[in-house]
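If your schedule permits, I should be very grateful for your opinion on a structural question. I have a record of one protein: its chain in single-letter code and its fold written as discrete structure tokens. Kindly check, if you would, that the fold set down in the tokens agrees with what the sequence suggests. I remain grateful for any guidance, and I place the record below:

***
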Amino acid sequence: MKKFIQNFNNLIIKRIFKLKNKTNNKFKISNFNKFLITFISLLFFYLFYLSLPVLFDKTWLQSHLESQLLKEFKMNFSTSSDISYRILPKPHFLIKDSKIFKEGENKIASLANIKNLKIFINQTNFFEKKNITINHIKIDNANFSLSRDDIKSLKNNSNKKFSNKIINVNKSSIFFKDNYGETITIIKISNAFFLPDHENLINIYDIQGNVFNIPFSFNYKNKLNTPDSGVLEIIVKALKLNIFDEYDNEENNLSFRKNVILYLNSIFTTIYKTEDHIITFNSTNSKIKHTKLNYNGELSLNPFNLNLNINLDNYEISNLFNNDSILNEFIKTELLFNENISINSSINTTLDSKNFFYQDAKINFNVTNGKINFNKTRVINKKIGLLEIDNSNLSFENDRLIFNTDIIININNSDKLFSLLQINKQFRKPIKNILINLDYDFLTKQIRFNNLKIENKEVSEELLIMMEGFSDNNTNNWNKSRRLFNTLFKTYEG
């Protein structure tokens, strides 16, 4: 190949000088023309040089590239023979339908199926094909399949020195699977980079994508040769959510880590540790808007199972269901309507003020098999009795968030209740329990009453129709409620 290029070069030079000698007596070549001829010649030679890899034997090239990928990235690539060479935008090989394999205990399994693999190469020496080296690689339209063991392996290797080359992934998907091979979550990747920063001794993972149709940005910086040390940042603009996680065992030699979550106008600062795939955590200096809160719990990621206990001091629980509340915004994303998510949480609050209808409240929030309920939620008035939610279900119906539930009211002192509602004394009849079944539309704030029982007896149709006076929660207030209750008890025969 060298000899061929040298002979070609000598031939061109000979022709140019021959032409020059012939024309030397007739006219003189200007400096600009000399420059132009030189530039065109050099450009021609450069393009010819860049085109040399087209002449490489594909069988040899396939084997050489696979060995280079294994050596550089420690990954077992299986490339197809469908290899083409492109000069633009930079010299690279385009390989169709490649795979990445992982070695298991008993068999070799596929880790990724890649539609387009672009291998960009150095331009230093195309004359010696054995010296062709990889500059960086780009993966387009790939499907990655990761199990819990794969994630564990990636985590263990993340603190080791990464390749000097950059990996770029575009328009791909990651399928997270459980131990039975069932897909748990799919993450769509629009753009991702994996690159080393040798000056600061860190590996950088930068991912832009979406999960459950929610776009996110993921950035992870891991210190080399330092287990469990690094910085993680996740930004989810659609949820107004920022997550920052930092841990460094070099400083304190402890397994405890710190996590900060900024969500809407709230801040959640958490100290946690991981042991046997279980994360235990508790809060420190956390606030929901301007209210201090304490929480603790336990989280398992595979499968996703969260047990959470929250204590809010002097906090009005109705704020949890405002249009801009954390819980309401999170439910609207439909993220929790997933069969692979399990959550058991409770929110406890005690009010010091006497201006509220209740003094103690416990909100139970449960997610099981893609269904959400608030069963065993209780609101307690120490002088009157308690209100409890049971047989509840929160669901999306025609793009509307509908809450169906039984509301059980147990009355310990009906006289106190009648006094609070200012019921006319002639209409007061002793009552111990009331059961209401209703649907509540969070979008329109409309209530539909399906059933009403007093003392375990269904009320008349007339009384049920009168309950429709409460159906528009936009107009409900304390004075209106008192008037309606007086009318209801007047009609109630007891």
